[in-house]
Amino acid sequence: MELTDREHEVVTNVYGDEMPRNLREIEAEELVAMHDRVSKAVQASYDDNDVDSLGILLPLEGKIVQVLHQRL
């Protein structure tokens, strides 16, 4: 599952490491860690009522969950 340019930028900023654009190329352990950080960013965005960030983070979180679910 490919990330948009903006999603890729956010993942790199939130996760702290350069990541492949295709989530399927990322190991499960890294995806879980990425999901944890993105989830925390979602919570912070809700707390701050940051609608712009939520518009990026929520679809990104969904993509991560989809890839993890497909690996079950």
Descriptive keywords:
72 residues; mainly alpha; 3 helices
In short:
The chain contains three helices and no strands. With 72 residues, it is mainly alpha-helical.
Can you put this structure into words, describing what you see?
By secondary structure, the chain is mainly alpha-helical. 72% of the residues lie in helices and 0% in strands. The chain contains three helices and no strands. The longest helix has 21 residues, at 28-48. The radius of gyration is 11 Å and the shape is globular. The two termini are 16 Å apart.
Order of helices and strands: HHH
Q: Output the radius of gyration.
A: 11 Å
**Largest sheet entry:** none
What structural class do you assign from the helix and strand content? mainly alpha
The fraction of residues assigned to DSSP E strands is under 5%
Which shape, going by the Cα principal axes? Answer: globular
Describe how the helices and strands are arranged:
Blueprint: H1 5-15, H2 28-48, H3 51-70
Helix pairs in contact: 2-3
